[in-house]
Task: inverse folding
């Protein structure tokens, strides 16, 4: 299965009539493995900051998580494993696997819990597969 299929069929799938607004699978170095058409253009330093927070949990809390120039307030996550952010009625979930970052961006009416479930389920599967 191609990486794009994981984005199209698993991350951008419909859950209870809702779906993510954007999703991506990136390498730890920020290389693009697959993205949805709506995924924002991001800067390398934004991915570097996310990776730093996985190594040094809490480093993003004072400044916020930035992706594509959009600032998300960092909320509860799992240190070293999942970073969650909130902006207005939407937010972001970033799950780290052995080799990749699984990123989901949502807006209402989708909930943070639904986004977390979609992103983290795929992340757990890829982790178990060695990715």
Result:
């Amino acid at each position: 299965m191609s990486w794009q299929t994981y984005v199209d069929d698993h991350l951008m799938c419909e859950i209870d009539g809702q779906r993510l607004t954007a999703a991506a699978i990136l390498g730890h170095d920020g290389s693009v493995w697959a993205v949805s058409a709506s995924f924002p253009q991001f800067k390398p330093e934004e991915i570097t900051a996310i990776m730093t927070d996985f190594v040094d949990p809490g480093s993003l809390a004072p400044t916020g998580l930035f992706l594509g120039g959009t600032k998300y307030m960092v909320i509860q996550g799992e240190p070293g494993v999942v970073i969650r952010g909130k902006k207005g009625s939407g937010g972001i979930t970033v799950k780290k696997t052995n080799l990749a970052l699984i990123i989901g961006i949502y807006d209402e009416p989708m909930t943070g819990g639904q986004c977390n479930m979609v992103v983290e389920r795929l992340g757990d599967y890829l982790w178990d597969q060695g990715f």
